[in-house]
Every structure is written in structure tokens, then in C-alpha cells.
Amino acid sequence: MNAAIRLRVGILGVGSIGRTLAAALDAKRIDADLVAIADQDEQRAESVAAALTTRPRVVSLHELVQRADLVVEAASQNALLDFVPKAFAAGRDMLIMSVGGLLGHEDWFRQASEKGCRIYVPSGAIAGLDGIKSASMGYLQSAVLTSRKPIAALRGTKYVVDNNVPLDTFHEETVIFEGTAEEAARAFPTTSNVAASLRLAVDRTVPVCVRVVAVPGEARMCMRFAYRESSGVCPWMWRTSPRKIIRALPSWRLSRRSLRWRILRGRCG
């Protein structure tokens, strides 16, 4: 009998992204079942579970990876240090939302290959990430991602606090950070997923520069990606503005033979 087996999904982290994914699964917008959730704030997790029709169980991280076929991290970069090893130990595929936490952990990708596990990364705000990856194989010299952020979005961020950046004195667009994607992931751990996804997509020999621009009077974030080819020209530039809540939701189908995956890329606006 070739009846499809529904995929069991577990979510770590029930902040805004985790709740959005849980609601999508609960509403059957994704062909899979939400079987469990986990969060360091158990009371918050219980509240989220109670609001869902399917009433997923609130469990520990250890039990989460045991119950699910695919485990979703929607917590934080720091959470990956415990999440990834436990997922590997259980032989689970992973969908990582805190992409910046993957940088500097090439060993995780080697382990995934050795154990037959998959690490999935959503395309986020960058359209055509697969195309960028293909183009980087021998054609790109460099890539630059410019993130234009409202003053309100920068308040309280790690980099701004650690460096005492005087945001209230800015009256025009001001570059407050320029560095590698790895440095950006450390400086802005909660808002560097696009930079991290770009770093993971392009060839390791291609330098990726990230600029963060503080924009007084701006109401939403906007990202601009540019690259330089070996010919010295820069033919394409893409502008995107990511939604406050990630709209790139995955759709899965698990049959008896294989797991087929695709990412539904949300339009930015």
C-alpha cells in the first residue's frame, strides 16, 4: 500500500517565528502534523499549545527530537549548541531559522553528511538564492549585502549596545557596521539570518561583505544585494524588504520511499 505517511514536526521556540509556523501547521497550510513544541519558557509554550486546535504536547528538547521526523529550530543561535547535537543523535533532519548560528560550524555539515541527516535553511528575504549559489561557482569575485534598518529596529541590539552607537544623533543615513558575514552574525545575532544564508550559499572563496545602515525616519527594513563578476561588472541588484515574521514556510511530503522538500518563498513587502 502506497498511502502517504504524514510527516511529524516538532518546533523548538515559540516566539513570533515559532508561533507562525505552529499556526500554519495547525491550520493545515502545510502537509504535516505538529506533534510537539518546546521552549525554555514552559508556561509560554503551554499557552501557545492551548490556543492550537491540535493541542501539541509541550515537551523537553530531548523528547522533541524523539517524537518528530523533522525538528525546527526557532529559538536562538545559542540554542543550536544543544539542539543540533541532540538532533544528530536521534538521526533527525533539521530546519534552522537562526541561520547565523551555523556559521563557523562546518563540522555540523560534515556530521549531517556522515549521519544521513539534512540541514535545511530557508531562503528568507533573498529571492533566487539557488541562482546565487550556482553563479558563485567560478564567476563571482565578491558579494555585498546592504541592510538598511530603521532606528527603532536597531535599538537594544547587541552591536549598538556594546559599541554605544549614538542612534539618536543621526539625521541622515549612516553606516554603523561593515564587516564579513561571520562578523555580522556575531554583531547582530537576532537579525543576521539573511547575511548568514548568503554566506552559506556562495562558494567559500567568495568574500561576503555586510553593511548595516541606520536610516532615520524609515519605517521598515530593506535589503540590497550586489555582486561583482570576474569581468568587473555588476549586472544585477535586488532590493527586498523582509516581513516582520518570516513567510518562507516549508511544505513536506513523506512517502514510504523518500522525503521531498521544497521551500515556499514568501513575497517581500
Short account of what is shown:
By secondary structure, the protein is of the alpha/beta class. Helices cover 30% and strands 28% of the residues.
Can you characterise this structure?
The chain is of the alpha/beta class and 269 residues long. It folds into two domains: 7-124 and 245-264, Rossmann fold (3-Layer(aba) Sandwich), CATH 3.40.50; 129-240, 2-Layer Sandwich (Dihydrodipicolinate Reductase, domain 2), CATH 3.30.360. The chain is 30% helix and 28% strand. The chain has ten helices and 13 strands. The chain has helices at residues 16-26, 42-50, 61-67, 80-90, 106-115, 129-135, 151-154, 158-162, 181-187, 193-201, and strands at 7-12, 32-38, 57-58, 70-73, 93-96, 119-120, 140-150, 174-180, 208-215, 222-229, 237-240, 249-254, 259-264. The strands form three sheets. Strands 3-2-1-4-5-6 form a six-stranded parallel beta sheet, with helices on both faces. The chain has a five-stranded mixed beta sheet with strand order 8-9-7-10-11. Strands 12-13 form a two-stranded antiparallel sheet. Helix 3 (61-67) packs parallel to helix 4 (80-90) and helix 9 (181-187) runs antiparallel to helix 10. The longest helix has 11 residues, at 16-26. It starts with 6 loop residues before the first strand and ends in a 5-residue tail after the last strand.
